[in-house]
Recover the amino acids of this structure.
């Protein structure tokens, strides 16, 4: 298992966040979704860094993080969007290329609607948006998370490897099986740590489409370049959502990626590398 760079930690108002960094140059910040972590980008970061960029991939408190947040941390979608903005500020990152996937794309949209100052360009891979926060198959999760003991039960469910290819786990986010050691790295923290379960529960209980719908309205005035890098076969976030985002953004390009589902960094990492590098205006060797 290869980490996406050298491990670091930074203390934010919400708690300590682990992140990985490699390369030098314009910063590219990679934002993962719920129940995965920075390892989602392990196949992408090395080549983007080699192309001349400073790649930074944080482990956000979305259920696969090793370090629990402060007990009073705001982990609502807007709270996590502010945590992401605080992360950019704490590292004094400027002219950032922000890359978001899945729930991380939703948090990126929300952050851009609130505190976009440090971002120069945006790459959105298949992500929650508009009324799809969460998509229908995951829609019950916020209600389930309100039931006592439900997060601990979810943690045990995630350990059953025979279930990993079900649509509600990896079956609809990757076309190919996730390596067992990567799945373990995603699903072990929530089983092992009560603090991680608390963080995940706080986030899940707060998920509501009102956040992404409000962000979408505000993004109508967002004038920096956006690349929508979408899987043409995506089952969770159909291509029509990319088309809707493209219709409201003022400086946007939509590119479809074949033979991939939501986690394009897992299914087609070289396509992600190529399009990020080209979008940034630097051609790969």
């Amino acid at each position: 298992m290869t980490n996406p760079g050298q491990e670091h930690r930074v203390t934010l108002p919400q708690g300590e966040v682990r992140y990985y960094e490699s390369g030098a140059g314009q910063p590219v910040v990679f934002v993962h979704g719920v129940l995965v972590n920075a390892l989602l980008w392990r196949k992408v970061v090395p080549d983007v860094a080699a192309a001349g960029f400073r790649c930074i991939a944080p482990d956000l408190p979305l259920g696969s993080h090793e370090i629990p947040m402060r007990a009073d941390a705001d982990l609502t979608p807007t709270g996590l969007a502010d945590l992401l903005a605080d992360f950019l500020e704490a590292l004094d990152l400027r002219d950032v290329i922000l890359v978001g996937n899945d729930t991380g794309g939703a948090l990126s949209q929300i952050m851009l609607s609130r505190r976009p100052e440090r971002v120069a360009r945006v790459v959105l891979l298949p992500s929650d948006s508009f009324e799809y926060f969460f998509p229908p198959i995951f829609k019950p999760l916020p209600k389930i998370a309100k039931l006592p003991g439900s997060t601990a039960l979810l943690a045990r469910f995630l350990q059953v490897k025979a279930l990993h290819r079900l649509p509600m786990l990896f079956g609809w986010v990757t076309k190919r099986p996730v390596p067992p050691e990567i799945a373990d790295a995603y699903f072990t923290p929530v089983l092992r740590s009560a603090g991680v379960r608390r963080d995940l529960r706080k986030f899940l209980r707060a998920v509501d489409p009102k956040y992404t719908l409000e962000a979408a309205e505000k993004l109508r005035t967002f004038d920096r370049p956006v690349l929508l890098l979408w899987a043409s076969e995506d089952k969770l976030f159909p291509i029509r959502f990319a088309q809707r985002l493209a219709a409201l953004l003022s400086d946007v390009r939509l590119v479809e990626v074949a033979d991939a589902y939501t986690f394009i960094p897992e299914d087609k990492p070289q396509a992600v590398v190529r399009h990020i590098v080209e979008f940034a205006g630097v051609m790969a060797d």
